[in-house]
Automatic annotation (TrEMBL):
Residues 1-21 are annotated as: Disordered. It comes from the Eukaryota. It holds the Pfam family Ctf8. This is Chromosome transmission fidelity protein 8. Belongs to the CTF8 family. It comes from Friedmanniomyces endolithicus. GO terms for cellular component: Ctf18 RFC-like complex.
Length: 149
């Protein structure tokens, strides 16, 4: 079985090349993934879509989050809103993943050269470790038209 070297994150967090992947979800406790139990239907046409065919979902809100609260206070994780467009709101919560996920990318520079001088092996770099997911398990609720997405 072939092996690919995996390296810890680089000291500088600024990418040397532009990242074609969509931005990751940032919560008050770090990166998270979004789990929506259902189907999202979009009426967006191709010109309205983001780069690489991404679809903007809406606005993510943590109504119970207080930046002045103690780090150990996780009450804010019990309520999360995802406003989809101007007329729907999903209610969810933040949950810790059973096993953390690593976000990796190809290492820039001399990625094809191994430490022993061999050619042909790609090197991967850990970009971030994801410990949480935002879970939306209920049907959307209708909301007024004043919400900006």
């Amino acid at each position: 079985m072939p092996a690919i070297p995996l390296h810890p994150p680089a000291a500088s967090r600024t990418p040397s090349i532009p990242n074609p992947l969509p931005q990751l979800l940032q919560t008050p406790s770090g990166l998270a993934i979004v789990e929506i139990q259902g189907t999202l239907n979009s009426t967006l046409s191709a010109p309205q879509m983001g780069p690489h065919g991404s679809i903007p979902l809406g606005k993510l809100s943590f109504p119970l989050y207080d930046p002045l609260a103690a780090v150990q206070n996780t009450a804010w994780q019990k309520l999360v809103y995802l406003y989809v467009g101007r007329h729907q709101r999903l209610t969810g919560e933040v949950r810790k993943l059973g096993k953390p996920l690593a976000v990796v990318r190809k290492r820039g520079g001399n990625a094809g050269v191994s430490d022993d001088g061999g050619e042909g092996r790609e090197a991967m770099e850990i970009v971030e470790v994801v410990y949480y997911k935002v879970l939306f398990a209920h049907r959307p609720e209708p909301v007024g038209g004043g919400v900006e997405g």
